[in-house]
Amino acid sequence: NMLLNSEVYMKEKYYSVIQTAQLLVISKQTLIRYENKKLFPTARRNALNGWREYTEEDVKKLRSIMGRTR
């Protein structure tokens, strides 16, 4: 039963700005520019280092905004 509970609370994978940009086939600078211009929603920030973090769901949303359906 402990194993089942721990599976439910497994930590979600986060992508860095560079990884996310690669998945979207855009540059890191473009990703940040789109966020700054409010074309993309503001990314969550890592509590320890302040870096942007993106989930798989975030990547799907960004693809949708860009009109990509991969």
Biggest beta sheet attributes: 2 strands, antiparallel
Coarse structural class: mainly alpha
Number of helices: 4
| Cross-sheet strand order for the largest sheet | 1-2
Measured between the Cα atoms of the first and last residue, the distance is: 37 Å
Describe the fold and architecture.
With 70 residues, the chain is mostly helical. 50% of the residues lie in helices and 6% in strands. The chain is built from 4 helices and 2 strands. Strands 1-2 form a two-stranded antiparallel ribbon. Helix 2 crosses helix 3. The longest helix is centred in the last third of the chain and has 11 residues. The radius of gyration is 14 Å and the shape is globular.
Write a brief structural summary.
With 70 residues, the chain is mainly alpha-helical.
List the helices and strands and how they pair.
Blueprint: H1 2-8, H2 17-24, H3 28-36, E1 44-45, E2 52-53, H4 56-66
Antiparallel strand pairs: 1-2
Helix pairs in contact: 2-3
Name the descriptors.
4 helices, mainly alpha, two-stranded antiparallel sheet, globular, 70 residues
